[in-house]
Automatic annotation (TrEMBL):
Pfam families per UniProt: F-box-like (PF12937)
Domain of life: Eukaryota
Gene3D superfamilies noted in UniProt: 1.20.1280.50
InterPro entries named in the record: F-box-like_dom_sf, F-box_dom
Name used for this protein in its record: F-box domain-containing protein
Taxon lineage: Eukaryota, Viridiplantae, Streptophyta, Embryophyta, Tracheophyta
Length: 112
C-alpha cells in the first residue's frame, strides 16, 4: 500500500501549509463567534497553537451564551465555576452573558 501525502489525505496544502495560519486573530475570533461557547471552551484550543492563542485573548469572550449548556449540566456549582472562568478570560470585555441557573457566586463574579 502506498503512503499518501498529507495534501491527499486532509485536503490541505503540501508540506502542512495551512491557510488558517494566515488569518489574523480578529478574523479567527469572528469565525469562532459562530461556534457555541461551550464547544469553544472545551475543545477548540486543542486544535492548534494559533487557535489556542486566539482563544486565550479576551476578544473571543465578549459574547458568552451558555444557556443550552447550562440546561444540560443543571448543576449550579459547575455553572458558577465555568462562568467565573470565562469572565476572567474575557478580562472585562463581556458585553453579553446568557446563562441559566446561575448561582450567587457566579452572579457576583459576573456582575463585578
Amino acid at each position: 500500500m502506498q503512503k499518501r501525502r498529507r495534501a491527499e489525505v486532509g485536503g490541505g496544502n503540501v508540506a502542512g501549509d495551512s491557510k488558517w495560519s494566515e488569518l489574523t486573530a480578529e478574523v479567527l475570533a469572528s469565525i469562532f463567534s459562530l461556534i457555541p461557547t461551550d464547544e469553544l471552551a472545551r475543545t477548540m484550543s486543542f486544535v492548534c497553537r494559533s487557535w489556542r492563542d486566539v482563544l486565550a485573548e479576551p476578544y473571543c469572550w465578549s459574547i458568552v451564551n451558555l444557556e443550552d449548556w447550562c440546561r444540560r449540566v443543571d448543576r449550579t456549582d459547575v455553572i458558577d465555576f465555568v462562568v467565573r472562568h470565562l469572565v476572567r478570560r474575557s478580562r472585562g470585555t463581556i458585553r453579553r452573558l446568557s446563562v441559566y441557573h446561575l448561582g450567587d457566586s457566579g452572579f457576583v463574579h459576573a456582575a463585578s
